[in-house]
Amino acid sequence: MSEESRPAERIAEARPAYLADLAAGPERFLEPRRSSCPWCGSRSLTCRLRTTDLLQHKPGRFVLDRCEDCGHTFQNPRLSAEGLEFYYRDFYDGLGEKKLGETFGSRTKMYRGRAESMLAHDPEPKTWLDVGTGHGHFCAAAREVLPATAFDGLDFTDGVELAQREGRVRHGYRGSFPDLAPELAEGYDVVSMFHYLEHSTDPDRELRAALGAVRPGGHLLIEVPDPESRYARLLGRWWLPWLQPQHLHFVPVANLRERLTELGFTVVAEQHAEPHDPVDLLAAVWLALDHTAPRDDAPWLPRPPNGARRALRAALLIAGIPVLVAATLLDRFAVRPLAHRLGLANAYRIVARRE
């Protein structure tokens, strides 16, 4: 029997290790709370959000603080290295690899749009490094837009090794970008970070690594969630891009532009409408339904749900289908054309040239 055909057995096998990790409580996965902003150093902090893990439903409570001086929003207290391992486990790989791989693999149009955003600035880059490439689906789609470009990928999960085996990237680097940056020095015409910077423990260190990897005259392409989106306030904890506890930093666009300029980049493009992903209402409804319904089986639960709880979960999710459909239609046809104008765009994209 294949691994994919026996999810219940795989969950049961993983349960003892998860329960052992949780025996001392999830609080041990958090570092001490900091009293200053990691972006500007200000001590003027306010709580922006309190939430739980709404995607995997692993135990734990998380807080996002906002700096009143520069607007930077960050997880506080932040996950420790051990905490990051615990909450990432079985999300992008392991038990979650197949599901996430299918989700990311189906977004070809979005990936092509990201590649096309570079055409006005460098229509024929020879080399491109995609940092945080995951399974390499962006690189595979981008090759259709830029067939003469050699795409490499970098990630700290084993997905990048899969990407290389599947031929989606020429070379897959596994590990920390800042640690690997010296061997990549000035090796790329383009370095991209698509929804990567918000996962990093130290965004400034990542930007300095990018400065070293981009050749003079080359470009850095960054796309991140926009913490200034009105949806972030209107939807609260149900706004998908908060993605707690994985997302550690949310950088306002003005802060990122300023830091890139200080490092020696020139920002040549800023986009808000183009990177907007029209899923905010759909995701909010789904997160609320999934949160309300009894839990599906997972190895961090003490025991599998019984038949009655499974039936109740199925009934609640089926009852929510009309609302999910309505939210999808609103996202795609009512909000999407006006998202930037109304301040609802959930992401922004910056293209910066290294001088």
Automatic annotation (TrEMBL):
A Pfam family: Methyltransf_23
Residue ranges of the TM segments: none
Any GO BP annotation: methylation
GO molecular function: methyltransferase activity
Keyword line: Methyltransferase, Transferase
SUPFAM superfamilies reported in the protein's UniProt record: S-adenosyl-L-methionine-dependent methyltransferases (SSF53335)
Descriptive protein name: Methyltransferase type 12
Organism: Streptomyces asoensis
